[in-house]
Amino acid sequence: MRTRERGMGVQVAVEPRRFHDGGTLPRDGRPGEPPDPGSDMRIVLERHSEEGVETFALERRLAYRDRHLGELLVPADPDFRTDLTSVPTLFTWLVPKTGAHLPAALLHDALVAGRGDPTSYVSTEGHEVDRVTADRVFRDAMADTGTGVVRRWIVWTAVTVATVFVGRAVPWSRAKHWSYRVAAAVTIATILYLGYSSTSDLLDRSWVGAIDVPWMGDRPFWAEVAGGFSGAVVLPLALSLLWGRLRMAGAIAGVMLAVLLHVTVGLAVIAAGYLALERLARWSAAAAWVLAAAVVGGSLVTFGVVSLG
Fold it and tell me: pLDDT digit string (tens) for 248-275?
């Protein structure tokens, strides 16, 4: 079944068969297998743990027939390693490490590589793939694997923001690149500051450095929440105009940051608490049990006082 999506002025026909089996690389004196466009892709992973970091090697190559670049084969080197979908732990509830988007994520990893690693792909038509093009390939490939529209645009935005700040092998002039960086930095700083001020306003507190935000004001709680949400949508959209041709990424990144700011802070606090408990348990099991007993005891006392008066 072929469907179409329209984004950034371009129609993309969703075609799952653009992914196919890429064969294998020569290894240990054994000849490799050539790509087979008639066979479905096969993702075969070998797990590695290097200095406590989990990575995976691809036992079989993936082949993807891009709409503009032709066939891309990954990896080009048997030493290539991937962490699957590169998502911070705090956001795996939104974009998991694996799923329909996994083949596209593996392809993107090979096209861009890490900061100190070489890329690991072969273009059968001899194309050089810069990072911006790799991000576009990633988005199209996610569509071809059946990844949901919202998720693939969120993921594309995340890798685009990374490209803006990391930005090796980008097709932009130095001035243009820095204009994107400034736009992204201004957007992030403004949203964080306004989010801080809005929270101060919502809680009716005068936090240091906070300002009164007119879209909330001295109103009933539900009205302030509604005003805060509207500001979290409207203001990032206005700031996205600073991003020029990347305004779609700016709009999505800004709205996501503003809307999920408090959720992210809450998850960060929970994650930090969990890591602290893990370290305490490794350092001293007795201390961990004492802390657990104190928490349970304090909870029992508080529950009794609050419930029984």
Answer: 999 999 999 999 999 999 999 999 999 9
Q: Show the tokens assigned to 261.
A: 């700011």
Q: How many residues does the chain have?
A: 309
Residue 308 maps to a domain? no
Residue 109 near residue 121, CB atoms below 8 Å? no
Q: Measure Cα distances from 295 to 36, 222, 275, 303 in Å.
A: 60, 34, 17, 12
The sign one gets for the Cα dihedral 271, 138, 13, 64 is negative
- Model's pTM, two decimal places? 0.88
Q: Is the pLDDT of residue 2 over 60?
A: no
Number of H helices, E strands in the chain: 8, 8
Q: Is the dihedral of CA 12, 150, 20, 82 positive or negative?
A: positive
Give the DSSP H or E segment for 66.
strand 62-66
Helix (H, G, I), strand (E, B) or coil at 14: strand
- SS3 state of residue 64: strand
Q: Which domain holds residue 48?
A: 3-165
Residue 210 forms part of a structural domain: yes
Beta-carbon contacts of 104 under 8 Å, excluding residues fewer than 6 positions away, are: 138, 141, 142, 144, 145, 147
Identify whether 74 is part of a domain: yes
Say which residues have a Cβ less than 8 Å from residue 21's Cβ, sequence separation at least 6. 35, 36, 39, 40, 41, 42, 60, 61, 63
Q: How far apart are CA 187 and CA 238, in angstroms?
A: 10
Residues with Cβ within 8 Å of residue 68, at least 6 apart in sequence: none
What values do phi and psi take at 228, rounded to 5?
Answer: -65, -40
Residues 188-213, buried b or exposed e (16+ Cβ, 10 A)? eebbeebbbbbbbbbeeeeeeebeeb
* Residue 200 located in a structural domain: yes
